[in-house]
Amino acid sequence: MTEAPESPKDGSLLPEVFGFSTEEDAFDALANENGNRYWSAREIMGYLGYESWESFKKVINKAATACMNIGAPVLENFGDTGTDCKLSKFACYLVAMNGDPKKRQVARAQAYFAVIAEAFQRYISGFEDIERFEIRHRLSGQEKSLASTAKQHGLERYAFFQDAGYRGLYNMRLSELRQYKDDPSNGSRPLLDFMGRRELAANLFRLTETEARIEKDNIQGQGPLESAAYQVGRQVRNMMVQDGGAPPESLPLATDVKKIESDLKRTLKGLTKAEEDRRTKDE
After folding, report:
1. 211 and 151 assigned to the same domain
2. Residue 244, burial from CB neighbour count under 10 angstroms (0-12, 13-18, 19+)
3. Per-residue pLDDT tens digits for 99-122
4. Domain for residue 4, yes or no?
5. pLDDT tens digits for 128-150?
6. Residue span of the structural domain in which 41 resides
7. What is the pTM (predicted TM-score) of this model?
């Protein structure tokens, strides 16, 4: 396997591999042929503008989580060798989409993969949609964790407890928030499925901090638990609106996260089939 050139801080000495300016796809040329094609994570790290393996590993982990969240086989797409990671083309796509878009190389890679995946996608418009998908899944887990913790501390009516948190963050109950935001599902789906990245992140922080406060202060009973949920929600709201920031209820809704998930599954299927067709053609 050919080692990637040393990555300078500005990435200016590395050849451009994410583009269609040459007859041969330069990114495809980096693939390793050993049964199934794969790309070395350490090799493409520099081409994405990353100098530290530790920082790049965090991007890989986020991408692997997205892969797991759609039910795709993680080991088949992210083959961890201990010192490297063998990435499938779909894994490379997820890594690029989870990279730092402020890096010129990452932005170009995202544009490159957007063109490749365009045939399979209807709703994904950029890295923010991938991040929304990841945060939404974390929220689902955090909701379950908070409900379990609150129940252990004497919670009896979860709906009232949940509403207290929403009142703190939004100045209104969940039912009122649905009406205020013109809920696309008319109450049949969690409103979280339609929230943008910033609003999802605020709610994830609210739930995480509420659980932490319950445990730290050993809060017991329905009333005190509702009070804690409200207070944490209010604190998160104050953080968002300070210095003229937009209140959470005014943030626009976004594409249904279920559609993002469907796009990711179609992209996995499409890229996998393209690789299989290529392998069959070469045999």
Report:
1. yes
2. exposed
3. 998 999 999 999 888 888 888 888
4. no
5. 888 999 999 999 999 999 999 99
6. 28-122+262-282
7. 0.79
